[in-house]
Every structure is written in structure tokens, then in C-alpha cells.
């Protein structure tokens, strides 16, 4: 039977034949934050109740056919202890062994791991679903193929203990490819909010990412993901968070992000079709600084150019060229950049 929690349609228990008993998705919620108008109509989420005070950090892991790496992700959370931690796993209709792994993890970490099942709706819906269930004061999203660093949680706790006024913490991370690794700092953070958004959207000088951004429950209304987006759904959320008054940066590496050619091909599948929705979601944010609003055409072009490079790396030259020229149509001046010329050489030469 299907039901609804704060406007999110979900399925109840995971079928026992697919991994045994699961926590029901349709948990009761006393009331919901009325934030629909503020964040573009996506489903609001539950406020913190008194029960939340004993659970300091909730890790929310969306998963679709990621059974091969899920155990590593969850084990990394509890590697340095399990005090005041929980993991919420949202199975987005997986057809692999995810259900069995979830059941095993619930047994390995009793009372610390909660898993729920929903029909396939995408990562955005999975994250929104996880927010309905999470009990923590702090909310930490982690992809199922990534992991927390051995010192990440301890450092985060020390960091917020000295800065208890913060609502958002952005840390560093390590990216691991099959043949190379590199560490990435969080970038720089200005007091000027327009500059923050410009640094994030255009200059890549501010680099939040899932796994290295932790958000206090006070800002839960800014964490609602646009469920029709299957790619880049995090960008509007990060913009809303960067507009917070109380954001802190730490150079410490909080997470390890694992990347592969398989994930690259997956990203290319949804990239071009998501751009117009992404731009709409970013530029309808209610408190977007006035200095950013005139940059819509430029941002549209930048996303098409970024998408064209992703698609080209996946070996789909014709689609990459089409995506590139849509970017030129949105903002013709970008055609004059050296990066655009290099792309054209790769996209048209044999």
C-alpha cells in the first residue's frame, strides 16, 4: 500500500523476501514546516522533536543498486565509534542485493542503522525521504559509494564545539579514481553572499559536495531536493545553504569520493535534459542576491558547456556537439574562450 508523508509518496515495508523486515517508510509526523513557497514547491520535511536531541549526527545514504559499496560506506561512519550517530539508508527500488546488505547492517549496528524502501524515484526523492526519518541534530548526506574519513567525524565534532553558532559546515574531501587520487579543499568563503554564489556557480572557488557538507537541522527547510531532477539536484540546495548567515569552512578532509568511468557514463545519461530545470530552480530562489540574477544566460551556457564535456568524455560526440551549441546560443561570447576552442577540436576531429 502506498501512503504519503508530507507530500512524499512512499512505499511501506520492504518485502520480506528481499531482505526481511524494514522500518516502515510511512512514519508518523506530527506536523510539517510550511516551506513550499519558499523553495519552489518541493515537499516540506519534518521539524525536530524532543526525541532528536539524543542523536547528534544522522547520515543519510540514498542507494540504487549499490550493494557492492554500501557496507564500506556504513562501516566508515562507525569506524571510530557509534556514540550519537545513526545511518538512514533509503533504497530507491534496487534490484541487486541491497536489501540483504541493509538487513545485515541493521543486525551489525542494532539501533544505529535504519533502512527503508521506496519505488524508484531518483536520488533527490531518496534524500527527501531520508530527511523525513533522520533524528539527528546535524544532517550529513553520504553517497553509497563514498565513505567518511577515519578522522572526519571527530574533527567535525571538535570544529562545531568551538563554533556552536554555525548552521553549515563545509569541509575538504579526497577524490579517488581507479588510477589517481587528489585532495580538494572547500575553497574560500566571503561574507558577501553574492560573491559566495558567484564563486560556487561560476568560478569553482567554493566547492561544497555531498559527503563534505554538514547541515544543522535549523536549516532543514533549505534541504528539500527537486525530485524531477536526476542530475545536479544538489546545486540549488547548496546555493540556499550558502545564503545562510552562519557557514563555516574547514580544510580538514571529511570524506572520500570514489569515481569511475561507470559513474561518468551514468552522469552523461541525465545531464543535458536537466539543465533548464536546474537553471529555473537556482534563479527562482527567493533571496538570491540581486547581483546574481542578471547572470542567468551566462549560467545556462556554463551548464551546457559543462554537460558537453561530460558527454564527450563518455564517447558520445554528436550529443556533445549538440549540447555545446545550445550553450553558445544561450551566451555567444563563451565561443571565444580557449576552452571552447579546445572542445571543438576534440568534438569534431576524428
TrEMBL record:
Pfam families the record matches: Glycos_transf_2
Residues in Glycosyltransferase 2-like domain copies: 58-211
Stored Gene3D superfamilies: Spore Coat Polysaccharide Biosynthesis Protein SpsA, Chain A (3.90.550.10)
Membrane-spanning intervals of the chain: none
CDD domains associated with the record: Glyco_tranf_GTA_type (cd00761)
Superkingdom of origin organism: Bacteria
PANTHER family: GLYCOSYLTRANSFERASE, GLYCOSYLTRANSFERASE TAGX-RELATED
Protein name: Glycosyltransferase 2-like domain-containing protein
Organism: Oceaniferula spumae
Amino acid at each position: 500500500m502506498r501512503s504519503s508523508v508530507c507530500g512524499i509518496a512512499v512505499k511501506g515495508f520492504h518485502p520480506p523476501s528481499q531482505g526481511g523486515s524494514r522500518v516502515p517508510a510511512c512514519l508518523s509526523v506530527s506536523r510539517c514546516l510550511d516551506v513550499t513557497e519558499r523553495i519552489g514547491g518541493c515537499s516540506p520535511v519534518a521539524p525536530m522533536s524532543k526525541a532528536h536531541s539524543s542523536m547528534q549526527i544522522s547520515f543519510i545514504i540514498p542507494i540504487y543498486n549499490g550493494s557492492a559499496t554500501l557496507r564500506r560506506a556504513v562501516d566508515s561512519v562507525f569506524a571510530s565509534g557509534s556514540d550519537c550517530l545513526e545511518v538512514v539508508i533509503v533504497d530507491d527500488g534496487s534490484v541487486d542485493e541491497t536489501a540483504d546488505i541493509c538487513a545485515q547492517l541493521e543486525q551489525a549496528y542494532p539501533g544505529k542503522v535504519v533502512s527503508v524502501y521506496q519505488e524508484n524515484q531518483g536520488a533527490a526523492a531518496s534524500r527527501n525521504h531520508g530527511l523525513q526519518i533522520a533524528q539527528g541534530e546535524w544532517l550529513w548526506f553520504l553517497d553509497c559509494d563514498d565513505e567518511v574519513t577515519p578522522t572526519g567525524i571527530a574533527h567535525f565534532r571538535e570544529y562545531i564545539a568551538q563554533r556552536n553558532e554555525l548552521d553549515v559546515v563545509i569541509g575538504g574531501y579526497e577524490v579517488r579514481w581507479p588510477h589517481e587520487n587528489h585532495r580538494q579543499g572547500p575553497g574560500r568563503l566571503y561574507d558577501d553572499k553574492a560573491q559566495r554564489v558567484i564563486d560556487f556557480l561560476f568560478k569553482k572557488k567554493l566547492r561544497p559536495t555531498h559527503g563534505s557538507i554538514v547541515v544543522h537541522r535549523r536549516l532543514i527547510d533549505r534541504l528539500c531536493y527537486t525530485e524531477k531532477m536526476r542530475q545536479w539536484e544538489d546545486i540549488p540546495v547548496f546555493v540556499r545553504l550558502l545564503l545562510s548567515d552562519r557557514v563555516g569552512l574547514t580544510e580538514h578532509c571529511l570524506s572520500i569520493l570514489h569515481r569511475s568511468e561507470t559513474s561518468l557514463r551514468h552522469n552523461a545519461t541525465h545531464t543535458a535534459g536537466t539543465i533548464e530545470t536546474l537553471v529555473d530552480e537556482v534563479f527562482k530562489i527567493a533571496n538570491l542576491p540581486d547581483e546574481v540574477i542578471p547572470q542567468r544566460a551566462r549560467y545556462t551556457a556554463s551548464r551546457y558547456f559543462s554537460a558537453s564535456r561530460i558527454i564527450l568524455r563518455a564517447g558520445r560526440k554528436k550529443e556533445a556537439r549538440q549540447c555545446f551549441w545550445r550553450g553558445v546560443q544561450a551566451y555567444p561570447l563563451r565561443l571565444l574562450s580557449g576552452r571552447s576552442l579546445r572542445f571543438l577540436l576534440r568534438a569534431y576531429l576524428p
